[in-house]
Design brief:
alpha/beta, 46% helix, 7-stranded parallel beta sheet, two-stranded antiparallel sheet, TIM Barrel, binds coproporphyrinogen I, 9 strands, 11% strand, single chain
C-alpha cells in the first residue's frame, strides 16, 4: 500500500484536543490520524500507535443518548444525517484516529428481506427465521437490490467523510456470514452466544445451510465493496459469535466464507477480522487474507503478534471493562499494553470487545491520553 506523507498542518486534530488532556504532548511526526491508522494496518512504523474503540458510537456518550431520547434505534440508523452525526460524535470528543460508521450488522439481513428489531433487555429479534432450504431461497442477494436497500449506509459514510476530510480514517463494517446465520437461524440473540439452531441446520440440512451461507457471503461482499466506494478507508468483519462454532468445524462453518469475502475486496483496502474468542490460533484468522486481526483480551497481544507474520497487524486488546473503572488505572493499563508492544510495527490500539454503556468518559480520555503520550 502506498502511504503519502503530507506536511503537518498547524491547528489539526492534535491541536484541537490538546486542551482536553493535561497530559497531552504534541506528536513530532508529519502524519495525520488517517495516515497513521493506514500505516499501522500495513504494519509500517508509526510515531505513535493509532486507536479507536469498538462501539465508540453509542450509548456511553451523553450526546448519543440525547439524540436517542426522542428517536428509535431504527430511525437513527436509517437516517443518514443522524447516523453520520453519531459516527462523528466520538471523534469530535476524543480525537480517535478512526471513525466507524453508525450502522448494525443486522442491516445486511434486513436488506435481504429479514426485518429486525433491537428489543430493550433482549437484543436482536428478527422478523423471520431461516430453518429450511425454502427459507434460504426466499432471501435476496441480488447485488443491485442489496445496494439500493443499503444506500442509507453509503450516504452516512459520504456525509461522515465530508466532515472528516482526509484527516481521520473512516471504517465500514459487516457481520460475518456465520455470525449473521447465528441470528437468522435462532431468530434472535442468544444469551452468552449459545446459538444452537444454526449448528443443527448445518448438520441436519447442509443444503439449506450452504445456500444461506452463499447468499450471506454474496450480500456481505456487496455491502463491504459498496461502503468502500462510499468512502470507507478500511473494513472490519465482525465474527462476534465465532465461539459458537466447534473448534474442528470453525474453518468450514465460518472462515471459509470470510476468505471468499476478503478475496472479493479491492486489494488496496485493508480488512480487519474481529473473531471474538475464535476457536483457532490468530494465524488461522490471518490466513483468510485479512491484513489485521483484532484480538480479545483473553490473549497476550505481544505473544500473539510474535506468532504472526510481520506483515499482519494486530488490533486490541485492552479489557472492555477498563473504561468502566477509574482513569488512573485506564492510563496505566494502556501504557503497559503499549510498552509490551514496543518494537512490533502493526498495532492498532482498541479494546478486546465493545465498550460498555456504563463506561466513564474520563477513563476513555485517559486511554486516548496514554496513547498520545507514549512514543
Ligand atoms: O441505542 C441502542 O439502544 C442501540 C444499541 C446499539 C448500537 C449503538 C445496537 C443494537 N447496535 C449499535 C451500533 C453498532 N452495532 C455498531 C456501530 C458502530 C460502533 O462500533 O460504534 C456496530 C459496529 C455494531 C455491530 C454489532 N451489532 C455487532 C458486532 C459487534 C459486537 O459487539 O460483537 C453485533 C453482535 C450487533 C448486534 C446488536 N445490535 C445491537 C445490540 C444490542 C446487539 C447485540 C445484542 C444481541 O446479540 O442480541
Amino acid at each position: 500500500m502506498h502511504i503519502r506523507h503530507r506536511p503537518r498542518k498547524r491547528g489539526g486534530t492534535d491541536g484541537k484536543y490538546r486542551w482536553l488532556y493535561g497530559t497531552l504532548r504534541a506528536s513530532s511526526c508529519p502524519v495525520n490520524a488517517r495516515e497513521r491508522f493506514l500505516a499501522a494496518t500495513a504494519s509500517l512504523p508509526v510515531e505513535r500507535t493509532p486507536l479507536w474503540i469498538m462501539r465508540q458510537a453509542g450509548r456511553y456518550l451523553p450526546e448519543y443518548r440525547a439524540l436517542r431520547e426522542s428517536r428509535s434505534f431504527a430511525e437513527m440508523i436509517h437516517t443518514p444525517e443522524l447516523a453520520a452525526e453519531v459516527t462523528l460524535q466520538p471523534v469530535r470528543r476524543f480525537g480517535f484516529d478512526a471513525a466507524i460508521v453508525f450502522s448494525d450488522i443486522m442491516a445486511v439481513p434486513e436488506a435481504m428481506g429479514v426485518p429486525y428489531q433491537i428489543v430493550e433487555g433482549t437484543g436482536v429479534v428478527t422478523g423471520r427465521t431461516i430453518a429450511s432450504k425454502a427459507d434460504a431461497e426466499g432471501l435476496c442477494a441480488d447485488p443491485d437490490l442489496v445496494r439500493e436497500r443499503l444506500s442509507y449506509v453509503a450516504e452516512a459514510l459520504r456525509l461522515s467523510r465530508r466532515e472528516l476530510g482526509t484527516q481521520t480514517a473512516l471504517l465500514g463494517f459487516a457481520g460475518s456470514p456465520w455470525t449473521l446465520a447465528c441470528y437468522l437461524a435462532e431468530g434472535r440473540g442468544a444469551k452468552n452466544g449459545a446459538f444452537t439452531k444454526v449448528l443443527a441446520l448445518s448438520r441436519e440440512a447442509p443444503d439449506a445451510f450452504d445456500l444461506l451461507m452463499e447468499k450471506l457471503t454474496a450480500a456481505v461482499a456487496t455491502h463491504l465493496a459498496f461502503q468502500i466506494e462510499a468512502g470507507a478507508d478500511a473494513v472490519q468483519i465482525f465474527d462476534s459469535w465465532a465461539a459458537a462454532a466447534p473448534a474442528e468445524l470453525y474453518g468450514e462453518l465460518s472462515l471459509k466464507w470470510i476468505g471468499k469475502i476478503v478475496a472479493a475486496l479491492p486489494k488496496n483496502v485493508p480488512a480487519i477480522l474481529f473473531a471474538k474468542d475464535a476457536p483457532c490460533p490468530p494465524a488461522t484468522l490471518a490466513a483468510t487474507g485479512v491484513q489485521v486481526v483484532s484480538l480479545s483480551d483473553s490473549l497476550n497481544l505481544r505473544a500473539a503478534a510474535e506468532r504472526l507474520p510481520a506483515s499482519i497487524a494486530v488490533q486490541g486488546n485492552l479489557s472492555p471493562a477498563l473504561p468502566d473503572g477509574d482513569p488512573e488505572a485506564a492510563y496505566a493499563a494502556t501504557r503497559a499494553l503499549l510498552a509490551s508492544m514496543k518494537g512490533r510495527a502493526g498495532h492498532i490500539l482498541n479494546l478486546g470487545h465493545g465498550i460498555h454503556p456504563q463506561a466513564r468518559l474520563e477513563s476513555v480520555a485517559a486511554i486516548v491520553a496514554a496513547a498520545r503520550d507514549f512514543s
